[in-house]
Write a structure and sequence with these properties.
Length: 233
């Protein structure tokens, strides 16, 4: 579904991603783990079109999207849950959800909202509350829910576990697994390697802008170097 080949990206003169080659197959759950500053968020932004590709190829369902505008990528059913949630704080939960479905037929929005609420009942109880007054966990649910309004084929998720209590981290991972089972392809970048590899089918390890290891999630979990660097020994 998604194919990156020898992809490079820069901020100004500073190169952040080096020769990244990654595949995500239809209905797969793939994770990219890496430490602070490895380039995970940049990679998500490149796939979404928020940071330009310097060279290399980026294709989605066989089509070159490397020069496509972000909104065109959204139109192709690629949705993005950014790091730090980035919900619109002054807007209500309902308004945030509607923004996620901005390009969809307005008459279809109530059905989509209902579907999101069936996944996150808490959002249904808070429809008229402004997003900034929600807890971190609720805001993360809203950020995921907003992305789901697109009924994405590919869901890009940046650091779902950041700043959340363990019980909410577990809940978020359960939701991702459930969405994947229902047919959504997922690419998750995550510092919480244990959780990410526990949920995904396959994984890649990103270190200072280079993919240094890839394999089945279970293989990576038992890899000595991964254990030492990312799983606490
Ligand atoms: P974290 O988990 O801390 O968010 P990350 O793996 O997501 O880390 P990135 O945010 O992609 O890493 O950052 C990769 C590198 O690019 C870092 O050295 C960072 O300082 C740099 N960088 C990120 N955004 C910019 C920017 N807008 N301009 C210049 N450099 C940037």
């Amino acid at each position: 579904m998604l194919e990156l080949r020898n992809l490079k990206a820069h901020y100004g003169h500073s190169q952040v991603l080096y020769d990244i080659s990654i595949d995500v197959k239809d209905r797969e759950f793939v994770t990219i783990i890496g430490a602070n500053g490895a380039g995970k968020s940049t990679l998500m932004k490149v796939i979404m079109g928020l940071v330009p590709v310097s060279s290399g190829s980026l294709t989605f369902k066989g089509k070159d999207i490397s020069r496509a505008e972000p909104w065109d990528r959204a139109g192709m059913k690629i949705a993005y849950v950014p790091e730090g949630r980035r919900v619109f704080g002054e807007l209500t939960v309902a308004e945030n959800l509607r923004i996620g479905g901005w390009a969809e037929p307005p008459s279809d929005l109530p059905r989509r909202v209902e579907k999101v609420v069936s996944i996150f009942p808490r959002l249904g109880e808070r429809m008229n509350q402004s997003a900034r007054t929600m807890s971190g966990g609720e805001q993360q649910m809203l950020a995921i829910g907003r992305a789901l309004m697109l009924e994405p084929e590919l869901l890009l998720v940046d650091e779902i576990s950041m700043g959340l209590m363990p019980i909410l981290v577990n809940r978020c991972f359960e939701v991702l697994k459930q969405l994947n089972k229902m047919g959504t392809t997922i690419l998750l970048v995550e510092q919480n390697a244990r959780k990410a590899l526990g949920a995904a089918d396959r994984g890649y390890v990103l270190e200072t802008g280079h993919i240094v290891l890839e394999g089945a999630a279970a293989e990576l979990q038992s890899d000595d170097a991964v254990k030492r660097a990312y799983l606490g020994g």
